[in-house]
Give the backbone structure.
Amino acid sequence: MIKINFVCVGNLKEKFFVEAAEEYLKRLSRFCRTEVKELPERKNPEDEAESVLRALKGRVVALAVEGKQCSSEAFAKKIAEYGDRGEEVTFVIGSSEGLSKKVKERADELLSFSEMTFPHRLMRIVLLEQVYRAFMINAGAKYHK
């Protein structure tokens, strides 16, 4: 069973974000093992870099606006490929200040969900939902329309 890590700078404070994250992590538990690591925010992404770099495991996919965009189907294919290769995957979400250059350079892939900027707490929920959607697509379930 594939292991998917989520390294997130900053924590979820709002009850509705916490509940949404818990729900998607529960749903994901039937497809993969997950670990969420929350790291403290600093005033500058470069000050966060060392703690982020220490938390990285396996294949690293960093969320960055300049990353490559893909459809849900293409993302599902990537998730399946990681699993087929037996790779542990770590998704990284930076703080409201973004990710440091060091973290982006360390990443194996940069992934963008849009050219728009999203709050990092909301982006965590969007990422969790898309990972869940990927597993549902790969399972042939009707969740994805």
